[in-house]
Amino acid sequence: MVKCLECEKEFKQITNRHLKFAHNLTTFQYKEKYPDSELFDKKILEFFSERSKKANELRKGVSRSESIKQKIKDTKSKQIIVPWNKGIAQTKETKDKLSQSGILRHRKWHEQNTHPQVGLKLPKETKEKISQSMISYARKNTDELKERAKNKKMKKKQERKPEEKKEKPSKTAEKPLKPAKKPEKPKPLVNEVEGGKE
Ligand SMILES: [Zn+2]
Q1: Which of 15, 18, 130, 154 is deepest in the core (most CB within 10 A)?
Q2: What is the mean pLDDT of residues 135-162?
């Protein structure tokens, strides 16, 4: 249960209706007055979260049809939703909290391998589309890609140099007859596009 801080009554959910009729307050004003207050009972929040999780589970990997997409677009364009916290600047504490929870969430995804996109299989058509668009981009922008590859190589060389200098003296002393490294083959175009899109 959650307590209304105006009248101390307990509810499963503090509704806009209750606030308006009992205290002549909007949710916005209530939240402004009691920033740490809750509007829902914890069990209800859990229920909502479980329910949406289940609903999402069913829809995972299923794309919406065009007609449904259009319907959603239409309804959304008609709605004017003003969130209760509109115009309130977030305190530094809130911002830190949010960013910290985001970092933790991502870390958890990576550690447990539960990132929402893990196991997501793209349909063959989509894969084909992506590879086609990359190829056509590569054909249109050969100069840019060549430049990019050049810069990448230069960077790698610069990173490698200091290490080689340290190792060389001992190596050449032990194995003087080792043949020089073969020059690296230039990578195929498509791979360069993938690298560049990171
Ligand atoms: Zn009340």
Answers
A1: 18
A2: 86
